[in-house]
Amino acid sequence: MRQGALSERELWMRLQDWWIEWVTKPIYRRALAHALRSGRLLRRNGDPYPLERLDSLTQVTAQGRRWPWVDPLKDMQSNRESVALGVRSISDIIRESGRDPEEVWAELGDDYRQMDAAGVPRPLLS
Questions:
Q1: Which residues, in sequence order, are bridge partners of residue 48?
Q2: CA atoms within a 13 Å half-sphere pointing along the CA-CB vector of 28
Q3: Fewest C-beta atoms under 10 Å: which of 4, 39, 48, 70?
């Protein structure tokens, strides 16, 4: 049963990756180019972004939906060992779960600041 679920999820992830690469990214690039040419994309100071920034502004990452594994405890243990061995990054594991590492780090930072302010001990991460 696990193998069937994993095979189906792998197919959906490949289809999502194809859709992102061949449909979503080209539409995003065309829409961004149009916004830059028309002067609708503004900086914080109110000045429009120059069209020359198109290449740097299209360096984005998109990711389709991801699913939890069939045996999450074993997968978490495997992830922990992979990070400890240096063969995987925490950011890679977060992206695999469908989240953005920068958002997770910001959330954790907020949580830790609030916990510290309230005198709540942080969880042990060993």
A1: 42
A2: 15
A3: 4
Residue type, 16: Q
User: For tokens 């900086």, what's the residue?
Assistant: 43
> How far is the C-alpha of 12 from the C-alpha of 8, rounded, in Å?
6
- Read off the tokens for 39: 């002067």
Looking at residue 104, its amino acid is V
pTM: predicted TM-score of the whole model, two decimal places? 0.59
State which amino acid sits at residue 26: P
* Token pair in block for residue 34: 């149009």
Beta-bridge partners for 42: 48
> pLDDT tens across 84-124, in order?
999 999 999 998 888 899 999 999 999 999 999 999 998 87
Q: How many other C-beta atoms lie within 10 A of the C-beta of residue 79?
A: 19
